[in-house]
Amino acid sequence: xxxxxxxxxxxxxxxxxxxxxxxxxxxxxxxxxxxxxxxxxxxxxxxxxxxxxxxxxxxxxxxxxxxxxxxxxxxxxxxxxxxxxxxxxxxxxxxxxxxxxxxxxxxxxxxxxxxxxxxxxxxxxxxxxxxxxxxxxxxxxxxxxxxxxxxxxxxxxxxxxxxxxxxxxxxxxxxxxxxxxxxxxxxxxxxxxxxxxxxxxxxxxxxxxxxxxxxxxxxxxxxxxxxxxxxxxxxxxxxxxxxxxxxxxxxxxxxxxxxxxxxxxxxxxxxxxxxxxxxxxxxxxxxxxxxxxxxxxxxxxxxxxxxxxxxxxxxxxxxxxxxxxxxxxxxxxxxxxxxxxxxxxxxxxxxxxxxxxxxxxxxxxxxxxxxxxxxxxxxxxxxxxxxxxxxxxxxxxxxxxxxxxxxxxxxxxxxxxxxxxxxxxxxxxxxxxxxxxxxxxxxxxxxxxxxxxxxxxxxxxxxxxxxxxxxxxxxxxxxxxxxxxxxxxxxxxxxxxxxxxxxxxxxxxxxxxxxxxxxxxxxxxxxxxxxxxxxxxxxxxxxxxxxxxxxxxxxxxxxxxxxxxxxxxxxxxxxxxxxx
Length: 580
What we know:
This protein has about 575 residues and is of the alpha+beta class. The chain contains 12 helices and 30 strands. Strand 25 (about 510-515) and strand 26 form a beta hairpin. The radius of gyration is 25 Å and the shape is globular.
């Protein structure tokens, strides 16, 4: 019997175990939850049976937020039985009929021989992706933060992925992404820019047409990847941190230059993503200027870093299309899909970190990266998404614009609830801690007009009833039913990642909480001092103005080389009589 894929685990140079993606010879038993369905065969079903199958597919699509995986030729216990070629073709046709009844599309991911019979036909199994954009969405939206050291090729990689034009080796592809003249002159990103990559229902990239406007891409896409290009230079570290905290990315892509290795801010960016619990995959770039020995050395150093006690990850080297499928389906831990995937232990499934090698000059392995982005499921489970959509609206403001003829426009992310045109909301807090009534006049997503924005989606919102000078980054739009109150301080459970000595009362640091950035001072704590690797209950007070926070929000603070993370435990409201 021929094995379906190559070995999952190989030995590294230092004797440690490195996982390589593969498909097992059998799957775990099918589970009722999740978006993975096993089917032995789908040959000429009766009308009543077909109706039942369509209802079942609708459930699986809902569980996967518009995406489902069908394993054909597999029993419910996970054993690969296989079908003849004729039976498999009939089953795939039936699957297409089921999908068409729901307005979905199917994509054959892979087909493999289970057994080779002497003087007889092979028995085959197939894996099919079914995709349908949910009724309440224009497309499936995923936000991806791009991290890495300066000169790692982040902007160039995005330029090649989104415009389908290979680089000339001197950074020509990145010119489409830069926003300022000094970025073009120095070649270094200093601001946060956004690029989009759209996939249609068949998994094909829709960016590569002659009329490549954002409106066209959004209109033709069933799945949209929004890249958040962040700065790599240490000088712009605060901009990078805000991109990770304020823009709420679903994933992070860490880019490493193969010829330079793990240098500069690479470790710092990886640590930030881990501290903020953003799932991260890695791309080793610039393989065209490296010898195989240099690439292997960089991969060994990366493997050592990911397996170190501080990271405790399982690197998965992606080299084939089979590797892509396994890496994508094991990348997100909160999806039920993972429970029916390759034979990794539950512990290791939580730590999978896909690693790609690529070149923007030769185009090496860029197709694998695109295929991975097409297959990776949304970060939030449908249950979480549904719960957030049922809450009151909360829109976090990241950017402020003044559009002639339109008035004040804010950009940001809707964290909870639903936002529509003509909604009456409150915006604040202002410098005095108050909130003001405003009206939503228009809403756009990726420059395309839309009437409804749902939880987890980024959008720009035009407002009336407030002057542009009153707006600032860090404000929120809220439903008046909540009767919001601003806070001047908060208690947090913090963990100190690094400090040269110890910190105590009256220590000041820049605090990042969602879209809030402000200097805060420690007024009180439950111990005399806090050292690296220690945890404490700390009371912060904002130095400049009140802010709007929620209990349970994740906090990151820094001052020079000092860094710490934590969680907001309770709020000290602005109008409370607090002893300062």
